[in-house]
């Protein structure tokens, strides 16, 4: 069955597009326009009127991390979705952590830098977000000490989910100098062919 991924490539739908490329499963990309997300037809897919959303046969799902964890559990091979309950919990841990500890400050800076008219920018909010980032990136840096990926030597859905959030550190030119493990891990993840393929999905 072909899964449908809803949402423009330049949105959080990129996370789901990355994983379908990584898993090598057939998918249909329903690119959507942001202006259509509150249309009645789309609200039947995702009542939040947001992207991404997934439809897999009769099954519908929203929330980017939930979509990716579902697809990884269903289609992951060779440890991409780990076998043990503990390792699966670690994948959930990093996915939730990315959303709660990292996403907001990164997005605050990204929106201010690239999507806000100069007279509407909020330097205080940006300064606060800048101040918030070293703490989680310090934690991530420590977790990656002596290992290539979050669970060890294998790239898993934990890496994909967290790197898809942390990818926003690139356009805002976050300084990974004090966090070299996190910086090289992010480069390693973002150099994967599936990430590049997802970004060029029309
Ligand atoms: N926590 C949700 C956030 C979804 C979200 O806010 N998506 C944005 C696009 S990146 C959106 O649909 N915005 C439209 C709106 O808020 O009306 C997820 O990770 O899927």
Largest sheet data: 4 strands, mixed
User: Which strand-content bin applies to the residues?
Assistant: 5-15%
- Per the CATH scheme, the topology name of the largest domain is Glutathione S-transferase Yfyf (Class Pi), Chain A, domain 2
Strand ordering within the main sheet: 2-1-3-4
Task: Give me the Rg, rounded.
Answer: 17 Å
Shape: globular
* Unreliable parts: none
In total, how many domains does the architecture comprise? Answer: 2
Helix tally equals 9
The mean pLDDT is 97
- Write the H/E string, N to C: EHEHEEHHHHHHH
CATH architecture of the largest domain: Up-down Bundle
Structural class: alpha+beta
Report the strand count. Answer: 4
CATH class annotation of the largest domain: Mainly Alpha
- Ligands, ions, cofactors: glutathione
Structure notes:
This protein is of the alpha+beta class and 202 residues long. It has 2 domains: 3-78, Glutaredoxin; 85-197, Up-down Bundle (Glutathione S-transferase Yfyf (Class Pi), Chain A, domain 2), CATH 1.20.1050.10. Helices cover 53% and strands 8% of the residues. The protein is built from 9 helices and 4 strands. The chain has helices at 13-23, 40-45, 64-75, 85-114, 123-132, 134-143, 157-166, 180-190, 193-199; strands at residues 3-6, 27-30, 53-56, 59-62. It has a 4-stranded mixed sheet, with helices on one face. A hairpin with a 2-residue loop joins β3 (53-56) and β4 (59-62). α6 packs across α8. The mean pLDDT is 97. The structure holds glutathione. Glutathione is lined by residues 11-12, 37, 49-52, 63-64. Glutathione binds next to loops. InterPro entries: Glutathione-S-Trfase_C-like, Glutathione-S-Trfase_C_sf, Glutathione_S-Trfase, Glutathione_S-Trfase_N, GST_C, Thioredoxin-like_sf. Residues 1-79 form the GST N-terminal domain. This is Glutathione S-transferase.
